[in-house]
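User:
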Amino acid sequence: MAIPDTVLIIDDEKKICSLLARIIGLEGFTVIQAYTGREGLKLLKTHEIQVVVSDVKLPDYSGIELVKAIKEIKPYAEVINLTAFGTIADGVMAMRNGAFDYITKGDDNDKIIPMVYKAMEKAKLNFRVYELENKIIEKHSFDSILGKSKAIAASISLAQKVSVTDTTVLLLGETGTGKEVFAQAIHYNSPRKLKPFVAVNCSSFNPELLESELFGYMAGAFTGAVKDKKGLLEEADGGTIFLDEIGEMSIDLQAKLLRVLENQTYIKVGATQTSQVNLRIIAATNRDLKKEAENGAFRLDLYYRLSVFTIELPPLSRRKEDILPIAMHYLHEFTAKVNKPEFSLDKKFSQLLTNHYWKGNIRELKNVMERVVILADSNIITADLLPYEFYDEVHDADPLNMQVMEKLHVTKVLNYAKGNKTEAARLLGIGLTTLYRKIEEYGIG
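Assistant: Predicted structure:
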């Protein structure tokens, strides 16, 4: 059922309140009346209201205070302020603090209806944005982090405590342990949650390119720089920047990042003046930064600034009880994606999954589950569907059997990828060159 377009009128002058209610109600809007700020705020909590028309001078609230209180309860609602001639300045001030507009009592009754329509339209748009933002926040909640073991619970607890602060965080852990997932959860549970979250993998760029990506550049700074370009720091202004694989950053660039941490300023490539930024930094690495800093391979002063609050993410080898629940989570996810019936795991498959040493941790486990869903021809996931590194255990090192299964495995994945060898190599977890070699070796057409 559609929610009615509802307007709340708050005015301690009951005649004005009733008059406005009649005028607005004739347009088909649902109208609710309140005579004090407190009464109005109480109605906001119990009714779906999109637009508030409120006097700027109430016995218990000023217009500015009331706008703030309304936005705290319903951030998407729009507020129109009613002013007397002597309180127009208050209406203007309320607009600066989030009100939609203001009208003068008595003389502007002909303006109220067009203004309510415009405010209603904007409030509905606000609500759609609000719903999308809440879905993103829910998606990146701490409850979305997979696993219930004591090891992961301890990491989550630390992340929850630091998320409400503005403290710099350093995430430590092996490849695939979920460092970016944690960074997103910290951001989306922080006061900066409605501002940008920008992630950059420091190992994906050479030092010069990483500098220009992070700090931006001015036109003419280098060949090809035909116009000014925003850097990722500027893109993240007000929010959080996540620097993954921070240990790969060059020493020279580390010195420039240190300046950002110390006073939130930086210099664009080719610029002569500093730029200001307001952001939180979350960094991550799978390397021992402290040891590298002590050996001179990483700036010690930067290490101390980054490691104000350190969280270690445990590998799957330290949380084996989480392996099967995580596997089942991805099994359901990929089953739904390819529109197959629900699967169950046979005992041998489950044992091999639990006992396997997951070098790539959750990322590797996720990839394995995606592959087995693609390859499964029955509703039971069997050990034969596991990737090559499991074959010795599955087939008791029978080379002929292994080759047959490997050929079948590669063929099925290629068919699923519709002949796209790059995608097939990704799904198989091997390099493109290795895939071409196996296609030739097995004579796969």
